[in-house]
Please model this.
Amino acid sequence: ADARAVELRARADALGARAGGGAFRYARPDSTFDAARVKGTIAELVRVRDARMALALEVIAGGKLAHVVVRDDETAKLLISRGKLQRRTTFVPLNRVAARVLPPATLAAARKLVGDENVWSPLALLEHAADLAPAVAYAFGGALLCADAPTAKRLAFDRSVGVACVTLDGDLFSPTGTLTGGSRAPAGDGLLARAAALVAARAEADAAEALSLIHI
Model:
């Protein structure tokens, strides 16, 4: 590989180390195992359309961002038994996962109360491959994203809506009466942002290495 390819690979490796727990590593269960059966963590598989929404989306998904999407439950069983996993891992098999999607009537009721410009469906704010829709709905489909705290509080406790609501600042209002908030990582340093940077860096390094091989 040429100097540029080496530099880009080193940058990608550094970002991978910084991502830390966000990366999923495993050993191939056998020589015939198709790596395409492992899609990656949910954090790696989605793109946020608007960076302002990233923090709230991270709060909505929570620990599910680190869950690993796989093609089917047989893949998950193989990895658990023979993948030499270094940590406990939750798998999301696409053939089994139960997608959580708020009824359209709930979003319509919320918009009627506060206006379209103040509340969003998290699923409409994300880009992802079509086949990953059930896994994305599983992670992000059970809440609403709101412009501010008064909006989130109103919707969370309104009988016609009554679902978890998260503000752009990452504060979570639950219809059970709890409120979660406080200090968070600086903008751009969240798991979704780091995962996006890592995916982009790896793609750039792969392209540079492929180009250098062509020129050999």
